[in-house]
């Protein structure tokens, strides 16, 4: 987690951010972030932002996220109609976080 984002969150809050690594880019474009009161709220906000980002970008590429101490990426698949399938994005983050 970036230090400046982590500083925004106190001990009981959880910071999150989502971004995309576009083809040909060397760096992630972090397009959404926030601080929520707890892990479930931060997870929900990050999943919603990630889902929206996939829908806006509308292309198969690497999407990245940081929620509290959890860092990862997702590459949505394509459904049988050729559309991006963002249905399982919530599955990339654990439901609970044991600290």
From TrEMBL:
Superkingdom of origin: Bacteria
Protein name per UniProt: Uncharacterized protein
Organism from which the protein derives: Pseudonocardia kongjuensis
């Amino acid at each position: 987690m970036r230090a400046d984002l982590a500083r925004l969150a106190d001990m009981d809050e959880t910071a999150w951010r989502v971004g995309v690594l576009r083809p040909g880019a060397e760096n992630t474009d972090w397009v959404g972030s926030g601080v929520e009161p707890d892990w479930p709220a931060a997870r929900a906000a990050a999943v919603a932002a990630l889902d929206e980002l996939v829908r806006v970008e509308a292309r198969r590429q690497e999407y990245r996220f940081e929620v509290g101490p959890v860092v990862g990426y997702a590459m949505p698949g394509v459904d049988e109609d050729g559309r991006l399938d963002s249905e399982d994005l919530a599955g990339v983050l654990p439901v609970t976080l044991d600290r």
